[in-house]
């Protein structure tokens, strides 16, 4: 398996250190490097890498800002001078991190973790659109950050100019419109219940007949979502009810 990687890091010394470490892994192909967030964004849009080595603390915009700009986030390994306890607050599921100066053994562990995750992602993406249940989105709210699999999200909901994202016990806000999100979602799994909400049909526990031909969806997380009359007809047709 060939892994296409990019480095986004403002320090030339740190970039060279990473490149030297990468040369020991024949399966990793370095397809580009960038010294700031905007250059990194353009590089990622052009190359669509599998793996991203990303510095957190950079001038003007930090590494988290770059992840927020991306619709589909590559497997990400942070490179940082922050101490282990500070970076712990940013970890969620797929995120890994390397403390500078980078230890060879720790680098190897991060690469193995990335390889395993990529193999799982490739398996889930077979025959699927660009964004699928295995794809990830990055969400930052205050000091908390999450890298969330699309398939783990139960539903999305409009809150003013933001969209609230429900997964597990979390419900942070994402600064994107519901229409922007809907365009990227895999159609087999997600359904527009009404003007305010999109649901993951895999999280529906019960479908209840409601007033005036409408439906109410009882979600596995306890949420209740009312389907508009027009969308109720579409839902019945789609689910063969």
UniProtKB/TrEMBL annotation:
<dbReference type="InterPro" id="IPR011006">
    <property type="entry name" value="CheY-like_superfamily"/>
</dbReference>
<dbReference type="InterPro" id="IPR046947">
    <property type="entry name" value="LytR-like"/>
</dbReference>
<feature type="domain" description="Response regulatory">
    <location>
        <begin position="4"/>
        <end position="115"/>
    </location>
</feature>
<keyword id="KW-0597">Phosphoprotein</keyword>
<dbReference type="Pfam" id="PF04397">
    <property type="entry name" value="LytTR"/>
</dbReference>
<feature type="modified residue" description="4-aspartylphosphate">
    <location>
        <position position="55"/>
    </location>
</feature>
<dbReference type="GO" id="GO:0003677">
    <property type="term" value="F:DNA binding"/>
</dbReference>
<dbReference type="InterPro" id="IPR001789">
    <property type="entry name" value="Sig_transdc_resp-reg_receiver"/>
</dbReference>
<dbReference type="InterPro" id="IPR007492">
    <property type="entry name" value="LytTR_DNA-bd_dom"/>
</dbReference>
<feature type="domain" description="HTH LytTR-type">
    <location>
        <begin position="137"/>
        <end position="241"/>
    </location>
</feature>
<protein>
    <submittedName>
        <fullName>LytTR family two component transcriptional regulator</fullName>
    </submittedName>
</protein>
<dbReference type="GO" id="GO:0000156">
    <property type="term" value="F:phosphorelay response regulator activity"/>
</dbReference>
<dbReference type="Pfam" id="PF00072">
    <property type="entry name" value="Response_reg"/>
</dbReference>
